[in-house]
Amino acid sequence: MFETFIPILMLVLVAAAIAVLLSGLSILIGRRTRLGKKLQAYECGVDPVGGTHDPVPVKFYMIAISFVLFDIELIFLLPWAVVARDLGMYGFWIMLVFVGVILIGYIYELSRGALKWD
C-alpha cells in the first residue's frame, strides 16, 4: 500500500539533503565580512530612519486584514465559476446573495473610514 509513496519520500529526502549540503557549503566556503554597513537594514535603496521598535500605525493592520478577508472570500468565486452551469439558477442566486453580503461588508468598511490612510 505504501509503495506509491516511496517516490515522494525519495524526493523529500533528496531535497532535504541538497538543502543541508548547500547550506553547509555556504557556511564553510562563504566569505564573512562584518562591516558596519553590512549589518544595517536595507530597504529599497533608502537609508533606514528611526529605530526598529517604532510602532506601526493601526491603519496598516486594518487595511491588511481587510485585504485578506475580502481576498479569501472572493476566492470562493472560482469554484463556483467552474460549476456554475451545473448549479443552474439556484447556484446563481446563492452566489448573488454571497456577493451581496461581501458588498455590504465593503460598503460598511468604506462608511466607517477603515480604508482611509490619512
What's the SSE blueprint?
Layout: H1 6-29, H2 58-75, H3 77-82, H4 84-112
Q: Compute the number of structural domains.
A: 1
Q: What is the chain-wise order of helices and strands?
A: HHHH
Provide the CATH superfamily.
NADH:ubiquinone/plastoquinone oxidoreductase, chain 3
Q: How many strands?
A: 0
Determine the N-to-C terminus distance.
Answer: 60 Å
What is the mean predicted local confidence, pLDDT?
85
Structural class estimated from helices and strands: mainly alpha
For the sheet with most strands, the description reads: none
The CATH topology assignment is Methane Monooxygenase Hydroxylase, Chain G, domain 1
Low-confidence stretches: none
Query: What share of the residues does DSSP label as strand, in percent?
Result: under 5%
CATH architecture: Up-down Bundle
How do you describe this structure in short?
The protein is an all-alpha fold and 118 residues long. The chain contains four helices and no strands. The protein has helices at 6-29, 58-75, 77-82, 84-112.
